[in-house]
Amino acid sequence: MARDYYATLGVRRDAPPEEIKRAYRRLARQLHPDVNPDAETQERFKEITAAYEVLSDPSKRQLHDMGGDPLSASGNTGFGAGFGGLGDIMDAFFGGGASRGPRSRTRQGNDGLIHIEIDLVEAVFGANRELNVETAVVCPTCTGAGTAPGTHPDTCEVCKGRGEISQVTRSFLGQVMTSRPCPQCAGVGTVIRHPCSECAGDGRVRARRTIEVAIPAGVEHGMRIRLTREGEVGPGGGPAGDLYVEIEERKHPIFERHGVDLHAAVPVPMTAAALGTSLKLETLDGPVDIEVKPGTQSGTVIPLRGRGVPRLRSNSRGDLHVHLEVATPTKLDAEQEELLRKLASLRGEEFPDGAFKNDAPGFFGRIRDAFNGR
Questions:
Q1: Residue 288: inside a domain, yes or no?
Q2: Of 118, 123, 274, 310, which residue is most buried, by most CB within 10 angstroms?
Q3: 154-191 pLDDT, tens digit each
């Protein structure tokens, strides 16, 4: 059975063109994929678009009123033959009329993607970089027109400048007219008979140029910075696409980054950890003094507030976590060995028994608890 396009748009069978246009406008605003991206709504949007295509074209509407389906007759279930898609619907919808006319020779350019490496200092404080990129730019000889100097495009002899050709076919329902882009001019309506010698009629050439990119403080590995209209110029000197700069952050020899926090390991001599001391550390913001308390154990973490990485689009920063690692001496002279033996004797640590502590924390404590069924 042929589809009832009047019911699809919710209009009377004798509805005038303006009422059909208003009905389509109302439904298109509700069902446009940009507003409702789910699959069911998109399918409904295709149905009302197909209905508007038929009912806004007098010949197709007449065929539909006779009981036929112009879209099915053309072998198309979604958009009919000769109908260019959503762009053509919108042209007719906003006043383009039944005749779509030739399409523009200029088109949107492609987006580009490049990778740059930065170090941790640049990620923390931001930086400005100059990038040398090779991309498509407007042809300097023809300024995008594609024609040789002093010449102009000629009107296509096949479509007479309309950009499309029509064909009438006969069926049991009568004559059906279909349209398609002109094969001679590719739907543009004009033909370049004397192309520019530099760009061969494309209106653009490849060239190297320098682009400055501002790296914001707080950027991290894998993020992309969008540079609007810095991509490739489109055919015919059309508007440029965007350029995306993807960040690759090099590992730092001292600081390890986790989000907005930094971590660093600092060795502390065994004697200094036992007696306590003061250490001067070189951070990304400059030197800072930290106090090591007497009896500090290996693995102790000292946080330095606000010494980490800035949060994007914020004035706050993460922290720097200093991990203290108590260093045991591996080489002792005779006097040092004698002193340590006296210390071990005074502390009763000459012959430790090696027994596990019942309240041992951490990894080994969890293993003990697992075996004891706690």
A1: yes
A2: 123
A3: 999 999 999 888 877 765 556 667 788 898 998 999 99
Model confidence over 314-343: pLDDT tens digits? 889 999 999 999 999 989 999 998 999 999
Average pLDDT over residues 9-24: 90
Cα torsion through 293, 295, 301, 302, rounded to 10: 0
CATH number of the structural domain spanning residue 315:
2.60.260.20
Question: Angle CA(340)–CA(345)–CA(349) in degrees, nearest 5?
Answer: 90
For residue 366, give both structure tokens: 């969890």
Residue 210 domain-assigned (yes or no): no
Asked whether 151 and 159 are in contact (CB, 8 A), the reply is no
Nearest to 106 by CA among 209, 240, 242: 240
Query: Model's pTM, two decimal places?
Result: 0.62
**Type of residue numbered 296:** T
Is residue 156 a contact partner of residue 185, using CB atoms and an 8 Å limit? yes
Contact between 250 and 243 under an 8 Å Cβ cutoff? The reply is: no
**Residue 102 falls inside a structural domain:** no
